[in-house]
Amino acid sequence: MLYAGNVGFSQSLELVVEAALQLPDVTFLINGDGAARPELERAAADAPNVRFAGYQPASRLAEVLATGDVHVVPLRAGLGDVSVPSKTYSSLAAGRPVVASIDLDSEIPRLLADSGAGIAVAPGDAAGLVAALRAVLDEPARAAAMGAAGRAWAEREASPAAVGAACDQLLRDVVAGRRRLMPRSPR
Length: 187
What we know:
Elements: E1 2-4, H1 13-22, E2 28-31, H2 37-43, E3 50-53, H3 61-66, E4 71-74, H4 87-93, E5 98-101, H5 107-115, E6 118-121, H6 126-138, H7 140-158, H8 160-175
Parallel strand pairs: 1-2, 2-3, 4-5, 5-6
């Protein structure tokens, strides 16, 4: 399992440590730094299958993302509507399945469901996170299919070419009068 990103207080990384304690046969790598890392390392002291690594140079990002068979995206309850973890897009582009612990009515669960790239569970649901991780790990063909689906989604919807084409189309629609950039204010 890989978590790569900020080790802060909005990420629910203690949930990942809790999952690691229930999955002793799985190695969890938390790659990143942040204000919550010292406390998280103390919490993981009894979890020999949790490893920590600091941020790597941007030139090694693809290598870092390739180290995880499954990527974990945890976010505290209530933050899913105000924060869209950008690491999700990197995980999808890396062709890895994603298990997210995030508000279920937010964008990431919809993206994972629509793309077929992963599983979302409610934030703080350790049993749900463990079950989702185990389901992906126990079915390598399903995990590979999720990873491939995520990669295909990233290429189709979030690649520089796809984003450029969408912006181009938006501008063409605005110029042609088919769309407005800003809604009209009520009078």
